Every structure is written in structure tokens, then in C-alpha cells.
């Protein structure tokens, strides 16, 4: 959380509000998740556990909801109408998503609204690739970082669900090296990829000349 503002370029601070939203996206999961884990020693039953888990998932929601804004702005930077329309649509979907997340009772029900973010992100990446292919004002510099972000997050989630490596080495990874720890480490790397990609988009938007 210290590295994010320290590694932000001058272009990120041209419009502090947008950078603040980006920073909040990076910060949220690393605030919500430690709270969830810290209070796992509670003895208040399933209801309290579900509340803590929902709080943790809200951190995941925040990084998806606010972490995608910079990429959308960059995609339609030279198309103001489509930029505003896309941002409004994305935030509307985000609010609908958090509504269903808060009502969800199972992990599967919580996961479905989060999937919508992934679909929308790849839709906007496809639009950016199309604009670039037609020589419209667009930049692909941030795309590799965004793709690595999703790939690393997917690997972490897959390892966590598959319980690897503790499934392979029963009793050997209970304290250090279990799948849940690996997932969290990969999550940190994933957020760093988001930050790197967003910085590239901030820099491109500052230098772009729309005609």
C-alpha cells in the first residue's frame, strides 16, 4: 500500500480523484481480507462468520468495481460520449453486483456477480484491440499487465479451490506453504499488475492527442 503511491507517476496525479479511486481499488482487498482472517477465532457462530466473509468479498468487489475504471477511461479516451456511457454502465453493473453479493448465502452465489466483471473487462479489452486495429486513438501498453493480473488471480484461485499443495503433501503445509497462503501472495502480485497497467494508462491519457 506504500508502494502504490510511491510508484505512481506524475501523470497519475494530474486528476487526483481518478487516482484516489484507483488507490482505493488496490487498498480495499488488503483491508477487508485481514479483518476477515483476524477474527476467525470468534465463537459467535455461522451468522458472524457469514458477515465477515461478506466483508471480505466486498473487498474483492471493490477492486473489480473501481480497478476497472482506469482501463475504461483509457479505452474511450478520445470518444467522450462512449467513455461516459461505459463508465455509467460499469458502475450501474457494479452496484447491482454488490446488491446480489450482499444477499448471497453461498460462495457460488457470491461468485456469479463477480464473473460479470470479468466478462465486461474482456469486452472492453476487445473494444480497445478493435480501435487499435482500425488505427483509432488507442494504446495497448497496459493490456499485458491486465492479462497477467487475471492470469495470476486465476492461478491463485484454482490452487485455493484444488487445495494444492497440501493435497499432495498431507500435514506438511498446515502452517507454511498451503494453498490459501499461496493464493494471497498471488493476489498481491495480481494487484501490482493492475497498478502497473493503470499507471501506463494514466501516462498514455496524459500524452494522447485526440483529433
Protein architecture, described:
With 211 residues, the protein is mainly α. Helix content is 74%, strand content 0%. The chain is built from 8 helices and no strands. α2 (16-38) runs antiparallel to α3, α3 runs antiparallel to α5 and α7 (143-162) packs antiparallel against α8 (179-207). The longest helix is centred in the last third of the chain and has 29 residues, at 179-207. The protein is globular. The protein starts with a helix and ends with a helix. The mean pLDDT is 87.
Global mean pLDDT: 87
Strand content: under 5%
What is Rg?
Answer: 19 Å
What is the string of SSEs from the N terminus onward? HHHHHHHH
Proportion of residues in helical segments: over 70%
In short:
With 211 residues, the chain is an all-alpha fold.
Key terms for this structure?
single chain, 211 residues, mainly alpha, 8 helices, 74% helix, globular
Topology diagram in text:
Elements: H1 3-6, H2 16-38, H3 46-67, H4 69-75, H5 80-103, H6 107-133, H7 143-162, H8 179-207
Amino acid at each position: 500500500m506504500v508502494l502504490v503511491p510511491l510508484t505512481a507517476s506524475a501523470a497519475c496525479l494530474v486528476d487526483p480523484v481518478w487516482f484516489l479511486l484507483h488507490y482505493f481499488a488496490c487498498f480495499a482487498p488488503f483491508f477487508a481480507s485481514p479483518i476477515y482472517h483476524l477474527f476467525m477465532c470468534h465463537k459467535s457462530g455461522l451468522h458472524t462468520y457469514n458477515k465477515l466473509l461478506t466483508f471480505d468479498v466486498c473487498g474483492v468487489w471493490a477492486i473489480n468495481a473501481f480497478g476497472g475504471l482506469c482501463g475504461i477511461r483509457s479505452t474511450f479516451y478520445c470518444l467522450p460520449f462512449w467513455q461516459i456511457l461505459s463508465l455509467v454502465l460499469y458502475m450501474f453493473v457494479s452496484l447491482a453486483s454488490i446488491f446480489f453479493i450482499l444477499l448471497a448465502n453461498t460462495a457460488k452465489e457470491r461468485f456469479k456477480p463477480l464473473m460479470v466483471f470479468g466478462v465486461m473487462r474482456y469486452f472492453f479489452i476487445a473494444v480497445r484491440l478493435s480501435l487499435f486495429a482500425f488505427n483509432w486513438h488507442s494504446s495497448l501498453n497496459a493490456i499485458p499487465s491486465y492479462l497477467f493480473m487475471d492470469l495470476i488471480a486465476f492461478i491463485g484461485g484454482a490452487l485455493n479451490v484444488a487445495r494444492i499443495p497440501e493435497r499432495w503433501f498431507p500435514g506438511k503445509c498446515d502452517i507454511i506453504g498451503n494453498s490459501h497462503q499461496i493464493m494471497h501472495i498471488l493476489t498481491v502480485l495480481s494487484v501490482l499488475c493492475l497498478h502497473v497497467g493503470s499507471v501506463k494508462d494514466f501516462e498514455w491519457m496524459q500524452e494522447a492527442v485526440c483529433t
